[in-house]
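Continuing the series of single-chain predictions for the mutant panel. This is the parent chain; the variants come on the following pages.
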Amino acid sequence: MRGTRGHVFALASIVLASCSDAPAISPAPDAAVAGCGNGAVDTGEVCDGGTAECAALGASWTSGVATCRASCRGWDVSACTLASPGSFETVKPAERDAAFATARCNDGTPFDFHVRLAPGGSREWVILLEGGVYCDDATLLCSDRAAKERYRITTSSTDRAREPIPQMGILSVDPDTNPRFATANLVHAHYCSSDFWSGTTTERRPSTGDPASGWYFSGRANVQALFAMLAQRYGLDDGDPALRVLFGGTSAGAFGAHFNLAHAAEVLPATRAGGRLFLFLDAGWMIDWDDPGARIFTATVRDREVWRGARTFWAGRFDPACEAAASDPMDCWFGPGWYPHVSRRVPVLVQQSSLDASFGIQLHALEPGKPSARAWREQLTSSLAGVDRLFSGSTPYHVLSTDDATWTTTGPAGSKLRDVVGRFFDAGPAERVVF
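Parent structure:
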């Protein structure tokens, strides 16, 4: 599913509002747009009355007719008939609507995500941002990423393709593996911006990945396009009082989830206010580490300065409330900096090894049992003291939620990760599972 072929999809029966090639795609809450009801599709509206053939909205639908929601911000797809269950549809927002032209991968191809709508319908959603390291042309060359991991810098599959992508763990459609979430709507966002989903660039920037033309780092626009497309065409309706959303990510995707939580809360205001928007971060907690003997890869400066350089390279932004309050925006990269701001808005569950196999062992070359590794563990454990919903093991591992084995078996009896995430989503009491 790594091809780059795609096609421009025109909605013959739908008139879409035109938008400029803007960096931010920030639809307002699901209240009616000014002018909604006048029968004309004005700026900010997806529709204004009328109907659309469900199959024109996406390949997840085979038949039926959708009606314009009262807010004019999307289509009511409750009468649409689903295609065969179990397969995910590839969605490329930029190929559906010019408003999403800035939602793109490093190489300029369209950003894509994959959605599996639950058979029988569901008001529950799991929206997961993929991880996959980064590049900054300082500690990690983008040219190496382009040469060795091209699928991480470019689009995948083709728009509207339906196929059983190999998702496991929390995105599994097998009820034995994933009893709590297999019947939810499942969304997997393809990470192709190399920027921890934080970049705000709309023009190509110098990069060894493409010395002639440069690269885009557009992670934020990608997240915004994802939420907008789900709301417009796939039934993510903030006006539904039964809507429940688990938003999160793995590794770089976990960072992306807390960096972009404010946008999710903005477009799902009623869901957030009702306590039905949850944030799950699988390996997304970094500490402000400074050990001259354990720098990040080839760096010669402390971690804070490495990430500061990366933020500039991507034109990155972190949680806006944290950045507004912090004397140094880099505070908002590290767990103790962003967590108080984010956790005030939604419940947050953090999954984090106290000696992460990627952050500690891979990035910093820490050796388990050695003094630097013990110091790392002590600092990280101390930094997590104020996290009221925590799942943390003491062995070197990284991401757990997208592998069937680690999803179902990691943790003490009765509190495997699968159990803890399920209780969290069901608004159970705060719990710290440390083992």
